[in-house]
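Help!! Second protein's tokens look totally different from the first
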Amino acid sequence: MISKANKQLSFINLIFLLVIPVVLILQRLGILGYAQNDVIIIVAVSAACSVIPFFLQRVSYNEQLIMHSVLFAMNVMMWLGFVYMRTEYYFVFLIVPLIAVRYASHSIVQQYSLLNFLVLLCLVFYRLQQAYGATLFDEHFSDLYTTMLHRVVEFAIPAIVINLIGLFVEHLAKERDHYEELEMKRLEAEKEQEKKTEQSEEREEAYDVQNFFYGISRDMEGIIRGKNKHFEMEVDSALPVMLIGLKDELREALCSICSDLLLYHEEAYVKMSVTFLAGVLPKRGQKITLQIEIRSNTDIAKAEAQHQALNFFLSQKIIDRLKGSFDNQSDAKEAVFIINVLQTVDNEMSIEKRTNRDLTEMQAARANQVQNSNVTLYRKIKVLVVDDNPESCKLIDAILNSVNVEADCVKNGLIGMKLLESQEYQMVFLDQMMPEKSGGEIVKEIRYMQDDYYQDIPVILMSLNTTQEAREEYEAMGFSDVIPKPIRVADIKRILQKWIREAYPLTYLEYKKLLEESNESHS
């Protein structure tokens, strides 16, 4: 407020420069009967009152100093005019207090009202002294008293009104500043919320619902392996196959709850049922409420009391962060939790429809193979290789080609799974250590896919560790066999001969011989 008023009033002070040519012209025309010295004083004071506030406005950052220089310069010009014009209009002493109202500060108005009141009394006394001389206090004291009283009354009444106006303007300015501050805070809060929403939306990603929840099931089976515990997953087949949401946070919350429930009790069971709120026909881009029910025989209240359910507490915080609801319906017999989370539909096809479609396509492909069995018998063996090491991929590809096997080599499991779903392979080779998904994670995804093809296809692990203990662990994961790294031709041939025989009615050597004969006949 002060800065804005200073800019406006500083330019108004420049108007005082017009007094200089006006005074000089009037002096030349003989209208002003001032002495040369008086004219010089008027011109000098006018120039100073014009230039000093404007100069300070340009060079100083002290708004209080600029304000006082502006108001004092105006005051000096008012006083100068009162003295030299010999006017009886005492309202000129109210002009500056009235201008000070522009600063919306009652204290400033009050200060300049008091200053001008004192200057007014001094100038009135000076005029009376000039008029009556030494007899002022003797013969004309009553005139002095009456004049002073009149001037005080004449000044005080409008000055009080001006001060009341200043007080009211200050109150309005404070209310406006308070409103602007609240509005600014509201806008900042909205921007912060928008920023958080944008960041949240940026982290949202599409995910396959079936794979997502069966992935949680695989993680839980890893926890209970070899123990007297049980985990069951039930996913509603009417759910859309693809949803969009913060899947990593949701997975962390659900895994944390289930792991606490499984680890606390020696003979724990956990059942997770997944569905969505009824009455909604899912469409792409539509929001649906994913409803997850978790049941267990674990006394979660007792576990919390013993500080053995920290993950359970953190899970509730994560669900709150996801703007979901966490309803604890547990009783003395069973722990029951209902979790509702809002998700966006990415593909409205239901899990049931996709499963039926895939089965139909697979049955058609199998029927076609039966009708063209001679073609299947003589075609090249085709395998999938997943390894993030380019040199290792080149080596195994060269070895496979040398024994007349066609290979698709990819660098990560995501690409590999897409190829495996879209094409038919007779074998899969997986590297164990990969950055995004390990070989163990990929083979679990393969074995949990709902088709006999994925259950029966030989999946071979390529690993540095091929001890008997490690082999048993790999077999428990779902691998068919393991070959050591670095890859050797003899190991590839052994694996092909061992596992291709189970997929074809011929041994590998018989199959290769027939294939060579077929190639010669076609040539």
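Here's the second one for comparison:
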Amino acid sequence: MPLRSSLHKQIQRLTPGLIILLLAASRFLHIGAGDLKDWDEAMYAWRAKVCVFEGAWLDQHHHSIGFSDDPDGGFYSAAFPPLYIWATAGLYQVFGFSEWAARFWAAAAGGGCILLLFLIGRQIAGTRCGLTAAILLSAMPYFCRYSRAGQFDVPYIFFVLMTIYLTLEAHRRGRLVWLLAAGVALGLGLMTKIAVALMAPAVLFLFGLYRIASERFPWRAVIAEQMILLATAVAVAAPWHLIMTFRFGDRFWWWTVVYHLLGKAGETQDMNQGNITFYMNELYTYTPAFLFFLVLLTLMSSLFTVLYFGLWCSHAEQELPTSLVERALSDAPPAPADSSGLRRWLIFRHPFAASLGNLYALPVLWFLFLFILFSLAGTKRSTYTLPMFPPMALIAAVPLAISYERRREPFRPLVGAFIFVTIALILKSLDDPIGERLNTWAADDSLTVTGAVWKTLIGSPALALAVAALYAAGVTLYRTLKMISPPARFRSIIQVLTFGVLFGLAFVDGIRPTLKAPKLKDDSGWRLLAPQLNARQYDAIVTVGGGFDTNAAVYYLNGANRGWAPGIAYRHFDTAQTNRQIAEALRPYFESKEDGFRWLLIYSETADADSYRRLDRLLERAAPSGGIHHTHQGIESEGLILYANTWSRQP
């Protein structure tokens, strides 16, 4: 019996870690599949290539993709700090150029986000909360998609989560070194993408204000925390920014602050526009159906708990469950009375111990801050929803997790498993005639005011009505079960069913699609041509057809199409020119070479499938007499055809 009990405890202890490990490792699936995509992925992968080709580790703007008609137009992409670029270039130097190397650090950051969200959730309300949040984040295909894209979005979110986790850990452990580590993480976030990592101290500041209002937390602790975080972050990020300032002065800061930061906040850029409900619609589109409704429902309950139990209700009336209090206080001894210096000013205290509202406050304030901030910004982009997904997962996880320990959570609408089933069925009906009738009824002339309100708040009348109905049903269900007072065993069965249905829906709607190999129907096949192109053992590249002016083309052609490949001539012809005209135009290249000449001929899918063979024969005739012509076997991909040719003189 003792052996069985010990084994059972070991399994309970190791299971969450194993699940987190598997979820984090799944981010690396298929990261090498498919060409690098336009726009951002290929643009930043090319900056990493510039580091390797040109040795331009500090500044890549001369050979960066941007506005070609502007001498400083390369700052369009090169004004972004280079931490991710450096890390990718390091992989290029060790393993060579490849798609998986361009995406590796994004996948690592995606796995790190899952781990950090688990740790943050565990601090808030225990292991069950952290595990639920990690599973829900893994169930978001849109977040998973960008965990496998060589872009800055998921890496900077990783540093945001790390900053928040380490700050909470500093309060839990009562040690200044953890707060300094949080500042370093914030600095690395600032070196990943322009200023957006500052959302971490902003969220922590709002949470600090809430603690001041709810538990009489001292102002000086919040201010000191912010000063330490920001000072440490500036110390980490300042060297590169100072170097760029000394080199380029106002030009660098104009692109960094005026164009990218203030410009996107104040006006629409790059045709990315939308109204005030843009992000509600985007979250509805990119979040699995069950999770979107789950977050909306729990957000309503969480807001009530944050306001009532954090600000209006006295601490004596909160009835925190004993296990929650013990867990919160077990590793959080107060700072010694005789402590000096910064420790005395910080007054380390566990952030979730004093108030039930604090359990909900961090994820609620976190989500609402980002949602309002991006909704008010002039530039609207779907990728700006990515930092909202971690707090969304926490919003859903906290009440679900503490429901095991707290029997009397006011107005909690989620008790039975069939609530989740109802959500799924209503969502399915939105695409059926029932959903169409709901939309028609809500948009009727007699309901103009009501329809306008729903559209403003939610963006979809049927969706808003479904949320309101489910919330009312949940409250009614909770009241009914409370009056019945079912035995403890029955409540446990309900809880197990609830989590079983939740995780089942998470797997079906979110996790399972992320495990599938991506469809490559939109690929041009550049990755098949990449080994010969990256070898750069040729004198010229000749391209025929369309699609050779994209960011992906710049990356795979190694900048030859922009004149950034010394010693390699580049000529492009559209499909309106005949093969004979192309051959005559290329004759001077042959005649200028004494020892030999090698060229790569690349046809796009817009050109005639057999035309490249006829052109190759014409080029053979165009070669100077007395030479030997060698034709190498072509590589045909879905959209491109590469034909390698060599001409050399007779000995």
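Reply: Different proteins will give different token patterns, so don't panic. The beta strands are 540-544, 569-573, 596-604, 627-631, 635-636, 640-649.
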